[in-house]
Amino acid sequence: MPDRTQRTVRDLRRGNRSALLRHLYFEGPLSRLELGRDTGLSAGSVSNVVGELIADGLVERAGVADSDGGRPRILLKVAAGYGHLVGVDVGETRVRVGLFDLDLTELAVTEHLLSDGGRDVDHVVRLVADGLRSVTADAGIEPATVLGVGVGVPGIVEQGWDSAVVHAQTIGWDAVPLGRLLRAGTRLPLYIENGAKTLGQAEMWFGAGRGARDAVIALIGSGVGACVVADGKPYRGATSSAGEWGHTTMRVGGRRCRCGARGCLEAYVGAASLLQRWRGAPAGMGEEAALAALSERAGHDQEAAALLDETAEYLGAGIADLVNLFNPERIVLGGWAGLLLGPRLLPAVRTAAAEYALRQPGRHASIELGQLGTDAVTVGAATLPLAHFLDSGGRAPSAAGNSAARTVRWA
Amino acid sequence: MPDRTQRTVRDLRRGNRSALLRHLYFEGPLSRLELGRDTGLSAGSVSNVVGELIADGLVERAGVADSDGGRPRILLKVAAGYGHLVGVDVGETRVRVGLFDLDLTELAVTEHLLSDGGRDVDHVVRLVADGLRSVTADAGIEPATVLGVGVGVPGIVEQGWDSAVVHAQTIGWDAVPLGRLLRAGTRLPLYIENGAKTLGQAEMWFGAGRGARDAVIALIGSGVGACVVADGKPYRGATSSAGEWGHTTMRVGGRRCRCGARGCLEAYVGAASLLQRWRGAPAGMGEEAALAALSERAGHDQEAAALLDETAEYLGAGIADLVNLFNPERIVLGGWAGLLLGPRLLPAVRTAAAEYALRQPGRHASIELGQLGTDAVTVGAATLPLAHFLDSGGRAPSAAGNSAARTVRWA
DNA sequence: ACAGTTTAAATCACGGCTTGAATTAAGGCG
DNA sequence: CGCCTTAATTCAAGCCGTGATTTAAACTGT
């Protein structure tokens, strides 16, 4: 089937509304003249489209630029109060629900700890629905102003034509029709996506990935994964499971990984694996605290230092794989373990990556530390409905008449 | 900068011309009614656009379907004789130039062997220009009917804004401004691309990849590389060097690769590496013949069999990396060594890939043998101008007034 | 041979959109 | 206040796709 993205003059207006909205959102405040120069639209078109966006309440004045003798420019911005967004982080240990305005300023947040690792699907679904009601009430907004709900989950999300189905091994979910289940609790548009991908999108929008077109967000936690962005768009693959970097082979026939294969990157650099192999691991300590202890001990303990040196080499080689295969301009190292170990390991990781990557792509790729912690899964999930809204030119889908989770679209 | 792909009603017509042309090209012959059904265009629009394409000579009648009592459907197809395409394969051992019609039927071909491994850039450029003249004369066509020249080269091609620059280590080329050099010999639009990528495109268009949207063409020769296709488009990366699969790490600190790094897949499964490690390698035999001998000897020689078993495991793990990272629906194993060893190794490769790949993406990916030999680099190169032509809706760029190689666009 | 029915394709009126040119708006300066 | 400069708006024109209508081309029955 041919690709049918634009075909009538109405699509033209929608495309140009989207282009102006996105440009204002990421680069604003801007004048109409700058919008025209940057987007290539004629002055008349900018005037027409901006006029419509202002009439719709999506765009507002943001001040006046000083004049050197001609007519002064009026600055414009996206109206932060036009609508609201909800972001949900469904994790192994908690369900976190946040309400944001269009600037992604957090207006309310609620969090529930899970005692069973998230295995009880119905319980999680109930917590999401309750959290949605709670943040809406806390912020004192009308539910009708919510443009959509983005949900990040710790597994693979298959985007079916009428529902999102989640496979999340770490919380024991197998083909859970989460879209349909959440639909029972709300009429708002739903956008369900892998949590690593929502965290990756957050880094791309306002973290270390900002401004890059081809990037990889490499996430190290207990497990290891990546979010690949190609030409500004997320790389999904045939069934949306692309980016399983943690299960690429670093040593054929090597250490057994919890996924079942041998020699996976995760079996060498995942926090769980590190702590398993560390003979000085303190007993009874949580994973994060234990890894912090390992990092601290590496300063004066040879075994801990050697373990982290080996980790840096494997990480560097794994990053070199990303460089050689994806040819990104930027690699962002994130995840709770990545942020914890990053400051100490990054120089050695860069050295190792330079050794294993081809010279030409390696020269073009910077390796940087992420800027956002794991709480950013929530705001990253809120970017899902926002991206959709911006892509549609600010014409949100109707909350009524929809019986399924929305197909997820990214920035 | 916002993505500005369509903005005026002229772009609408261009997009719809492109959609109809591509659909007719890949799926034709078809009636107007089928075109409308498949593309979603209204009957009136199909009538208008097809009428224009017929008037322009791009589309012609291809027969009439039988009628059951209503008006019979008229079948349409792209006019094979509308224009011509040239495909060039610049390799280590030869320069091959072919002239094709729009159906990619070969009308003439010429080939020159290289005695210096392609190191003399000026000599290669002269051979290309001479070959172009030669095939044009042999086929007895007007040069003005040639829509463009596609060139496949054995290295990384950086697509600059006004020229293609080639880095091809195997033929000793470092930052060769091939676009500018070839420009001196012809006014035709030039499209320069990595030969593995043109071969990959050929497999996608009329080989084992046909019909797939997310695929990887994995090429095994002396070296190892891949051509990644995402959502029907080639995955390029920031500087067009994506797909260097042969230099992903299979064993941290392992065998030294000719690229300088340790543990690369190429150091384990590339033909050059295999022959280097085979103690029974016959002296004075060419690479292809020697590999054929290895394959044949594996039937009754334990060492040869063990070497190929190890190769299958590394190949399977390398393919599993592609599955886990790119989530393709299809992996095509090609390249001269891949085609030679494929029939014998494919069962073991599939077994190994299933062991190393995650279950969910692994279940969705088929692993198949390529259908085209290395001569397909030439016809694959011819698909570059053709893809551009189809993408532009059949409005070819003017040959005059262009001082640089064209930015390459793929199917 | 003709009328009626069916299916395919062409034609037409209409509305929407962007563009470039012309006009209006809003400063600064003498 | 007039002139100049720069920003924004308005207007006429052309292009495009759509849905409704008309025309075209077959088949069947009388």
TrEMBL record, chains A, B:
It holds the Pfam family MarR_2. SUPFAM superfamilies: Actin-like ATPase domain, Winged helix' DNA-binding domain. Residues 18-62 form the HTH marR-type domain. Coiled coil: none annotated. Belongs to the ROK (NagC/XylR) family. This is ROK family transcriptional regulator. It comes from Streptantibioticus ferralitis.
